[in-house]
Write a structure and sequence with these properties.
With 371 residues, the chain is α/β, with parallel strands linked by helices. It is built from 13 helices and 15 strands. Helix 2 links the parallel strand 2 and strand 3 (63-67). The longest helix is centred in the N-terminal third of the chain and has 21 residues, at 102-122.
């Protein structure tokens, strides 16, 4: 007798974004879950992603779409009503925007997250809630200790990476808002028994990413090179990050779903780890070697809140679930290049749009079930 599969009703806030649309695609491919995408479609590229998901869903009836903002408490409450799993990827994602408009940053990242948590608490379904936080919650802890070696900064703790035991040190309004939301999600597990998980993520990259200088820098660098568009590197370019392929992140989401008894209530650092690090200048060289195109750039002053070195220690999550990154930097760049070749026009059209957020009305036919 076949094993009965538990019903999954998956709600993805920010579901038309880079991570959200990839997660929805994976769920369509590997599960029978009903998928509810909730997004305000203000980020350039999100409409392309939503149209792509609609084509994937076809007439299956498995895709539901809500065009909405996480600051809309009533709309969030209605969306959460029947969910068994909730993924909160909706956010204001740029440090620069948070500095220019800290109230907006707070209302989206903290207020929006609280709306989701409260809706989950009162839904009656006890849904799981996975929240994607950021390494920015740790502040610039290594900045005073970093030294230069060739084309990168090296810090004493970078060899092993940063673990969850690193003290929190919110830096920039963005760091404060994501950090506050991070702690709310964690505490709702302790106080209300919600089945929450927090991922404090390093750089994520891969197909479907419309990157810009404020977010998605790996894709931004590669796309700029292939479009022969110069860009600005803020700081020396020696800053180091670890990079995780989006497919490996999706594997991590699956690992959480398969190991609820261990992962619920936990906070995890998620990233490519010490084997998957690159500086900005090293990435420029890697792109030139892969594509034959030398990226043109100029240096400008460093940005407030930037970490000179951040490398993820993901050993806690690996111990709890057996998960580990698979793709290296080169494989990530190759997958981005392949996707770019198929979507060159879309990437080019979003480049200028990042400077002017899309606020035009959403066609009514987009906010409906795919059925």
């Amino acid at each position: 007798m076949a094993k009965k599969v538990a019903f999954r009703s998956v709600l993805i806030f920010g579901g038309a974004g880079f991570i959200g649309s990839n997660w929805a695609r994976r769920l369509f491919e590997t599960t029978e879950a009903k998928i509810h995408v909730y997004d305000n479609l203000t980020r350039p590229g999100s409409r392309y992603n939503l149209e792509w998901l609609q084509k994937l869903a076809g007439r299956s009836g498995r895709l539901q779409i809500t065009i909405g903002d996480v600051r809309d408490q009533a709309k969030v409450l209605h969306a959460v009503k029947h969910a068994t799993e909730i993924y909160n990827f909706a956010a204001q994602v740029a440090v620069t925007t948070s500095i220019a408009d800290p109230r907006l940053d707070f209302e989206v990242n903290v207020g929006g997250t609280l709306n989701i948590l409260e809706a989950a608490r009162f839904s009656g379904n006890n849904p799981s809630v996975l929240f994607t936080s950021t390494n920015k919650v740790y502040g610039g802890f290594s900045n005073g200790l970093a030294r230069v070696e060739r084309k990168r900064y090296v810090a004493p703790e970078s060899a092993a990476g940063t673990s969850e035991s690193q003290p929190l040190d919110f830096h920039s309004p963005y760091g404060c808002s994501k950090g506050a939301a991070d702690q709310y999600v964690r505490d709702y597990a302790r106080i209300y028994g919600l089945r929450t998980v927090v991922f404090r993520m390093s750089c994520i990259a891969g197909p479907g990413q419309f990157g810009n200088e404020d977010q998605g820098w790996v894709a931004h660098f590669l796309h700029s090179a292939l479009l022969r568009t110069p860009l600005v590197i803020y700081g020396s370019g020696l800053q180091v990050r670890d990079v995780l392929h989006v497919e490996d992140l999706l594997n991590a989401f699956e690992a959480v779903h398969k190991s609820p008894a261990v992962t619920h209530g936990q906070v995890y650092n998620i990233g490519g780890g010490p084997r998957n690090t690159t500086s900005l200048l090293e990435l420029v060289d890697a792109i030139a070697e892969l594509t034959g195109v030398r990226l043109h750039y100029e240096l400008d002053a460093g940005r407030s809140g930037d970490q000179l070195v951040y490398v993820t220690d993901h050993s806690k999550f690996t111990r709890d679930t057996g998960w580990a990154p698979r793709a290296g930097i080169l494989e990530i760049l190759e997958s981005l290049q392949t996707w770019f070749k198929l979507n060159r026009g879309k990437v080019a059209s979003t480049k200028s749009s990042f400077l002017q957020p899309v606020l035009t009305p959403v066609p009514a036919e987009m906010e409906r079930s795919a059925s």
